[in-house]
């Protein structure tokens, strides 16, 4: 044991490394710890562990932490803490500690390393099972530690076995379905007051156990009487333990009890040199064994025993510390005030039922032990020890929560110390009509503070029962919820911080994009280059330049992120006919076709170009963001609806890299890259595919165009992606090859009236709405979505349809998402009936002005009509047009 | 974190799967002959029982296969799982 | 003596001396029975009495009053949804909120501290701006904020470019805010009870009495109760009830979790939501952080979900609000939300005459409490769907006229 220095509320103290902060402060004579949250009543340490309600601190040293019970902090050199009054600090500095997580499968998880838990661990370990034992305290042994008694050697030895993993300072926070539990392990706070980064400060464990043994023990609860909250009033087990460990604050003590625990603690107090003035037991009569084990022992020590009595009130000295207690016998006129500086309260053991209740196991009230216990044993979960009601040989208690109080006494008789909630508050709840513990809780705030009703919960249930004449079992146990004790957010965030919070998906060409200075756009998890500015160029200027370069020369775009699904099997064509709105089974080998996909509700949800590589081999592309969703969709239909179709789907998004060269000069560039390829229109037609060597590597080239320009999409195995890109850049240098990003791609396709799923669509558009009736096959009997087209609302007139919009002021780019009203409503202030909204809007290099796409009610019949767009600071006027702005005859695609 | 019994891989953590709601809802082959109301039943109505439910899951991060399983929606207890188009085991109810 | 000044929390006022009759037993019959004493059910009863003079009403609750979403809630109140129909009912609700405490005569801690919805990518910005413009034409207050403006309103937001999905902007509804859920529920309950409404707790509906396609009453664990009209306002248990009444509803009941911290110093005085970074948060009057995210993915009546959902939420929270790193998660809870295919409610008539439905509010029911109750009361009173409820008819799924609020419904979907 070494001495350490620590600071409490600005004052320096000394203590022993590893002892609890609470114990150290008491040994230093600090009894008035803090004041209560609302009523400013002086409060002191009352408990031993997490049941502590009063002595909370904000920790400034180390990583810093708000609202920790002083009973759970192990002293280290340099610890700095401040007493709290119910509120935690949130300093504006980063917590640089490391937090991590671990996952384990195990045969048996034993929660609690007291004697019952150790015995269970031994039993299962003897059977050869893998066992994890978790205990929230620093050392094993449960109550034996507080009693200063050694753990039986053969039990302690279990923790060293090869098939047993022992984790101290590890709190099981929640128990979930099918044997899943979550625990937090404190790994560095007890070492020193530093911030640790070389190992995690708190580790969150995820355990999947075949069987979980709950040996979580119990803590004591208090009694409700007037002025039951003074410094110097403690749970008896806590009082006896502190005094036995060198706390010399108390010269005398009174013990008030409902069970035999009070007697055991009275004896410990006596043995530690405290003058025990009286043991006040509410029980007039006790069983013979109780008499033997407890009352006789007290008499032998010459301690006064007052039977059938309890404490009704206490008094304080000028410092607000306990000075005397008043005891009464509810059945006689006994009333006596006894001077004392310690009142040790044994209000009854309260087993820790939380974990069991999390998975729906209901505690039952044990009249003998005056406690909610959980006796449970099935294949998944079992209970043992005090939780199961095994308190030891002489474990009888009386169900008693406090004496009858006058209305004056009720004002200062505390039910929940942390909420300063009194018996008066409780009584008001009952009188107001509250009967459920959940209502009482919300009416009074009892049980809602930091301790979440660990001691006040059972007390309140008992009080409700007494108030309305029901047994505690009829009232039922409080609803407990995870976590068992509070956990720092950062601990549960673990390593999922910064760049690890979500994967970054990049193409093989990514490094080139970054090196070029292109800002990246997040498209789902993908990083895509947004635009490629030259030195000093704004986005606006870069995009105009890129657009012009593509339509007048040749641009290059990295299209590798598009979803790619390899589809094989003799029924692939038939399957694609069901998936797409248009016909695919008739597609010739070597050809590509653009397809639209609808849900069973008839609404467009994805699109893409699908190529027939060979008779029974297809390559489907999807939107970048929709790839996983589409693959899931395909598999769902194949596996759960049409298993007779022989079709195999494989995601190849990451296996293939796609570089698109686009523009009138792309033919020349293609020729240079693939000298063996005949790139004439006659030989290589629009939507045709060719296999050839490009820049020396095998490629499939498709003449697909998303811009309307002559274009070649070069598909290679992903490892060659960067090589192709670099070859394009070097071979195209004298052609002013211009890399372009997602923004330019958006503008170019919009000029052609091509939709982008997710931009022109929001899940409520049919192909018809998008003016794409041409893509809905009239020949197919059925395809997914077809039936929904003819529903009343889907087939009606007046639906929003895809059109173009030109603002009267061509220099103004209408914001995307802006809502459109009829021209006649230009001056109508909101709320105003709208007729649609802008889906895409850009400045066009080709047009030399702005343009937009929009969805407008009955739009296709309204071309030429004037519209207005009310903005906050202006009204924009414009006209409805066709949705194709550039190359209406589609002649540019052949170059 | 549910432990879901994939009939191909054995029980795995919930995060490896996607949910598919009610099992055995067949796509109507004759949808053209259905009224809008009958069609809406297929598109939108899925059972939502308080108790045992035969539902679908797909093991997305594992074998990528769909399967059916009985699960009690009151306490998340799993009954037997079974492959699509195989005999449905009796409800554990 | 302490050498530091300790932070203090605010003390809330007491609830009134009397709320409602404990263990109220049901009469043999009523004019109207409302099934479900949650916020919407209690509000319905209140407005039946207040607006329509219909007081011979019983609200039947299988558990304890307001023990569902009103028992614990992240309490976000806003009306900045996308579609006109949504603007209609949610903004009507917000207008009712603005006068509710005074009208009902109960403290509800209604605080119009604004609701901010962050955008984290180009497409996110685009869709949120559409929402912003939609609000504009519907005269629902909405402001577009740049990252710097976000930082000014809420200094704890991390607007740095270094996080995985940087904040690119946000919509902000100044009139949005929060209120205390149990105070709202109890306010409605007490006011309704004061007007003569019976609130029957621990009374579970076991069946309906339906004759010739018309509802005559209900069967319960406390006996049969006759009624001229019955309204089902039972949220996650709507499917259970509709099955008893013999018709289908397109609802799925899912777990929705949320969590609360201990009392902390006040660092956040507005409400912040993020869809991309999956979390929404506010800080309540006493100082607890109240947070939520999305639903668990499977059907459940267990009132609990998986812990991984909580972990993801907290990782997201730490990214966006680094100051929360040290905050303690104190309690998690889970409820049952009823989700319709378009993430919009189902209100109005059912195939059974005089049996009305109000459900499908999914993860967004709290904010609609006054509006929902108002509209349901009007619908029951007249027997015809109120104008604001018409778009939410059960038969919209037949015509295909869905009101798809998956995007604007926030993180939960």
TrEMBL record, chain B:
GO biological process: tetrahydrofolate metabolic process
InterPro entries: SoxD, SoxD_sf
Any one GO MF annotation of this record: sarcosine oxidase activity
Name of the protein this chain belongs to: Unannotated protein
Annotated organism of origin: freshwater metagenome
Lineage, broadest ranks: unclassified sequences, metagenomes, ecological metagenomes
């Amino acid at each position: 044991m070494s001495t350490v220095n620590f600071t409490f509320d600005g004052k320096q103290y000394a203590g022993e490394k590893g002892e609890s902060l609470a114990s150290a402060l008491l040994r230093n004579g600090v009894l008035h710890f803090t004041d209560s949250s609302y009523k400013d009543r002086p409060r002191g340490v009352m408990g031993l562990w997490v049941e502590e309600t009063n002595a909370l601190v904000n920790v400034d040293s180390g990583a810093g932490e708000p609202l920790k019970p002083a009973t759970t902090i192990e002293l280290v050199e340099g610890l700095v803490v401040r007493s709290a009054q119910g509120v935690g600090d949130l300093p504006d500095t980063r917590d640089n500690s490391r937090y991590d997580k671990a996952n384990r499968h195990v045969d048996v998880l034993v929660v609690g390393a007291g004697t019952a838990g150790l015995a269970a661990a031994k039993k299962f370990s003897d059977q050869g099972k893998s066992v994890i034992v978790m205990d929230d305290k620093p050392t094993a042994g449960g109550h034996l530690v507080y009693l200063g008694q050694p753990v039986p050697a053969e039990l302690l030895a279990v923790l060293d076995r090869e098939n047993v993993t022992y984790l101290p300072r590890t709190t099981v926070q929640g128990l979930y379905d099918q044997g899943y539990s979550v625990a937090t392990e404190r790994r560095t706070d007890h070492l020193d007051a530093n911030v640790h980064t070389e190992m995690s400060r708190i580790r969150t464990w995820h355990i999947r156990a075949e069987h979980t043994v709950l040996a979580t023990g119990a803590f004591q609860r208090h009694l409700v009487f007037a002025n039951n909250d003074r410094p110097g009033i403690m749970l008896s087990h806590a009082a006896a333990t502190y005094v036995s460990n060198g706390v010399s604050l108390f010269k005398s003590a009174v013990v008030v009890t409902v069970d035999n625990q009070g007697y055991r603690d009275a004896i410990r107090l006596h043995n530690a040199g405290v003058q025990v003035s009286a043991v006040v037991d509410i029980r007039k009569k006790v069983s013979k064994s109780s008499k033997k084990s407890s009352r006789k022992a007290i008499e032998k020590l010459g301690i006064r025993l007052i039977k059938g009595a309890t404490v009704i009130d206490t008094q304080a000295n000028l410092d607000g510390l306990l000075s005397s207690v008043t005891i009464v016998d509810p059945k006689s006129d006994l009333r006596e005030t006894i001077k004392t500086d310690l009142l040790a309260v044994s209000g009854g053991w309260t087993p820790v039922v939380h974990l069991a209740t999390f998975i729906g196991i209901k505690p039952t009230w044990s009249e003998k032990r005056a406690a909610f216990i959980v006796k449970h044993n099935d294949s998944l979960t079992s209970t043992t020890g005090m939780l199961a009601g095994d308190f030891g040989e002489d474990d009888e208690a009386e169900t008693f929560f406090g004496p009858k109080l006058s209305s004056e006494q009720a004002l200062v008789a505390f039910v929940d110390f942390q909420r300063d909630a009194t018996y008066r508050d409780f009584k008001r709840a009952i009188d107001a009509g509250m009967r459920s513990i959940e209502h009482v809780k919300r009416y009074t705030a009892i049980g809602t503070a930091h301790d979440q009703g660990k001691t006040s919960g059972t007390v309140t249930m008992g009080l409700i029962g007494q108030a309305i004449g029901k047994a505690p079992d009829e009232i039922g146990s409080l609803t407990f919820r995870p976590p068992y004790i509070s956990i720092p957010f950062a601990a549960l965030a673990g390593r999922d911080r910064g760049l690890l919070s979500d994967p970054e998906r990049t193409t093989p060409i990514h490094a080139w994009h970054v090196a070029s200075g292109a800002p990246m756009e997040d498209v789902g998890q993908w990083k895509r280059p947004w635009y490629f500015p030259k030195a000093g160029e704004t986005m606006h200027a870069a995009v105009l330049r890129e657009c012009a370069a593509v339509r007048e020369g040749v641009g290059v775009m990295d299209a590798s992120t598009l979803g790619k699904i390899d589809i094989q099997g003799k029924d692939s064509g038939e399957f694609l006919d069901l998936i797409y709105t248009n016909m695919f089974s008739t597609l010739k080998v070597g050809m590509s076709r653009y397809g639209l996909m609808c849900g069973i509700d008839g609404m467009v949800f994805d699109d893409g170009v699908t190529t027939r590589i060979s008779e029974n081999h297809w390559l489907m592309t999807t939107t970048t963001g929709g790839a996983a969703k589409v693959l899931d969709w395909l598999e769902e239909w194949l596996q759960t609806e049409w298993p007779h179709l022989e079709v195999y789907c494989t995601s190849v998004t990451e296996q293939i890299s796609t570089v698109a060269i686009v523009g009138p000069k792309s033919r020349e560039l293609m020729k240079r890259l693939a000298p063996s390829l005949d790139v004439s229109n006659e030989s290589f037609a629009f939507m045709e595919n060719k296999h050839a060597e490009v820049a020396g590597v095998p490629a499939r080239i498709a003449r697909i165009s998303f811009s309307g320009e002559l274009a070649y999409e070069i598909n290679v195995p992903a490892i060659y992606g960067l090589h192709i890109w670099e070859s394009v850049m070097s071979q195209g240098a004298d052609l002013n090859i211009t890399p372009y990003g997602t923004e330019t791609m958006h503008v170019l396709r919009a000029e052609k009236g091509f939709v982008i799923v997710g931009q022109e669509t929001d899940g409520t558009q049919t192909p018809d709405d998008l003016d794409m009736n041409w893509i809905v096959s009239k020949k197919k009997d059925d395809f997914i979505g077809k039936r929904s087209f003819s529903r009343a609302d889907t087939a009606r007139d007046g639906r929003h349809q895809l059109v173009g919009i030109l603002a009267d002021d061509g220099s103004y780019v209408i914001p995307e998402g802006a809502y459109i009203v009829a021209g006649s409503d230009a001056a109508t202030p909101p709320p105003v009936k709208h007729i649609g909204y802008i889906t895409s809007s850009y400045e066009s290099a080709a047009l030399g002005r702005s343009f937009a796409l929009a969805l407008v009610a009955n739009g296709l019949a309204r071309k030429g009509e004037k519209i207005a767009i009310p903005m906050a600071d202006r009204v924009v006027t414009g006209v409805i047009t066709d949705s194709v702005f550039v190359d209406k005859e589609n002649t540019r695609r052949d170059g | 974190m549910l432990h879901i019994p994939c009939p191909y891989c054995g029980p795995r953590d919930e995060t490896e799967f996607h949910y598919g709601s009610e099992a055995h809802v067949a796509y109507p082959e004759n949808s053209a002959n259905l009224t809008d109301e009958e069609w809406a039943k297929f598109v939108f109505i899925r059972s939502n029982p308080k108790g045992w439910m035969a539902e679908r899951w797909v093991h997305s991060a594992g074998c990528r296969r769909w399967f059916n399983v009985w699960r009690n929606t009151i306490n998340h207890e799993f009954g037997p799982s079974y492959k699509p188009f195989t005999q449905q085991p009796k409800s554990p109810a | 003596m302490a050498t530091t000044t300790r932070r203090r929390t605010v003390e809330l006022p007491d609830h009134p001396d009397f709320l409602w009759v404990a263990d109220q037993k049901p009469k043999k019959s009523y004019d109207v029975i409302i099934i479900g004493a949650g916020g919407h059910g209690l509000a319905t009863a209140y407005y039946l009495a207040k607006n329509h003079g219909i007081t011979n009403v019983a609200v039947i609750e299988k558990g304890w009053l307001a023990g569902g979403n009103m028992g614990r809630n992240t309490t976000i109140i806003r009306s900045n949804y996308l579609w006109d129909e949504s603007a209609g009912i949610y903004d009507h609700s917000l207008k009712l909120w603005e006068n509710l405490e005074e009208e009902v005569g109960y403290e509800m801690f209604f605080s119009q501290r604004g609701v901010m919805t962050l955008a984290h990518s180009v497409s996110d910005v685009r869709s949120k701006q559409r929402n912003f413009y939609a609000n504009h034409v519907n005269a629902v207050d909405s402001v577009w904020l740049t990252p710097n403006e976000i930082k000014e309103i809420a200094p704890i937001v991390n607007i740095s470019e270094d996080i995985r999905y940087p904040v690119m902007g946000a919509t902000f509804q100044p009139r949005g805010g929060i209120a205390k859920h149990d105070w709202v529920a109890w306010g409605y309950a007490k006011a309704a009870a004061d007007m003569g409404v019976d609130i029957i707790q621990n009374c579970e509906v076991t069946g309906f009495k339906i004759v010739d396609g018309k509802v005559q009453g209900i069967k319960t664990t406390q006996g049969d109760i006759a009624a001229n009209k019955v309204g089902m306002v039972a949220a996650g248990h709507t499917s259970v009830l509709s099955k008893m009444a013999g018709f289908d509803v397109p609802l799925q009941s899912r777990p929705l979790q949320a969590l609360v911290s201990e009392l902390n110093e006040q660092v956040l005085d507005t409400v912040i939501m993020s869809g991309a970074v999956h979390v929404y948060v506010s800080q309540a009057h006493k100082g607890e952080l109240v947070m939520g995210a999305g639903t668990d993915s499977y059907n459940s009546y267990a009132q609990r979900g998986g812990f991984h959902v909580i972990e993801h939420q907290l990782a997201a929270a730490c990214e966006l609000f680094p100051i929360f790193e040290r905050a303690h998660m104190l309690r998690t809870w889970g409820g049952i939300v009823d989700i319709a295919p378009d993430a919009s409610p189902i209100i109005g008539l059912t195939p059974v005459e005089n049996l009305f439905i109000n459900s499908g509010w999914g993860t967004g029911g709290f904010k609609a409490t006054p509006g929902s109750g108002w509209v349901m009361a009007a619908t029951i009173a007249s027997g015809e769907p109120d104008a604001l409820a018409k778009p939410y008819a059960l038969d919209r799924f037949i015509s295909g006229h869905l009101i798809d609020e998956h995007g604007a419904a926030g993180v939960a979907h």
